[in-house]
Write a structure and sequence with these properties.
This protein is α+β, with helices and mostly antiparallel strands. The protein has two helices and 13 strands.
Length: about 200
């Protein structure tokens, strides 16, 4: 009985160790346009201090976002460009638009780009402008993808997407700790079985 109680305490301690060390939350998002272009990226925020709905806009320090990136792919899945609009809680984009519901995982508003890559041709995705690149009430249009050439300041509409898929990204430290906890529990169970069969 003493062994069972000790094993229970050790299991509780090991599983407690597997709890996340930080309160950071990272999510991947993706979309596919009606013309076959695709976009994917990640964003992160401090889950301990973020409001239920995270809203960001413009350049400068962000209120909740820690990072925000975007990669754009051709219909043949070739990477066209990638960049980050938000790095270390600072937005480099005057056009940044972001609204995310932490409870429903709904990324309802997004205006993000790859201009930080420094390439002459970059890409932006937005539901703040219509397919003609004319400003509209945010969220009142589909998510529209454009290429833009810096040297000529010309934007070309590439297609639209009706939804953004958001999925949580497990933290490496949490995944490793959980794996270690499971291994420890397995070892304890083997020892417990041996002790019971030895009687």
């Amino acid at each position: 009985m003493k062994r069972i109680a000790s094993a229970g305490l050790l299991v509780t301690a090991v599983l407690g160790f597997a709890a996340p060390v930080s309160q950071g939350a990272t999510f991947a998002y993706s979309f596919t346009t009606n013309t076959g272009y695709a976009g994917a990226g990640e964003f992160s925020y401090d889950a301990a201090t973020a409001p239920a709905v995270i809203v960001e806009s413009g350049s400068g320090p962000t209120t909740s976002l820690l990072s925000l990136s975007l990669a754009v792919f051709s219909p043949s899945s070739t990477l066209l460009d990638s960049g980050s609009s938000v790095i270390n809680s600072v937005s480099s984009s005057p056009y940044l638009g972001f609204e995310y519901d932490t409870a429903t995982l709904a990324l309802s508003l997004l205006d993000n780009n790859t201009t930080s890559s420094g390439n002459d041709v970059s890409y932006f995705v937005s539901n703040y402008v219509d397919p003609a690149n004319a400003p509209v009430t945010p969220g009142s249009t589909t998510l529209n993808l454009f290429s833009t050439t810096r040297s000529t300041n010309v934007a070309v509409f590439l297609g639209s997407a009706s939804q953004i898929v958001v999925t949580p990204v497990p933290e490496p430290a949490t995944t490793t700790a959980a794996g270690m906890a499971l291994l420890a529990v397995g070892g304890l169970l083997r020892r417990w079985r041996r002790a019971l069969s030895a009687g």
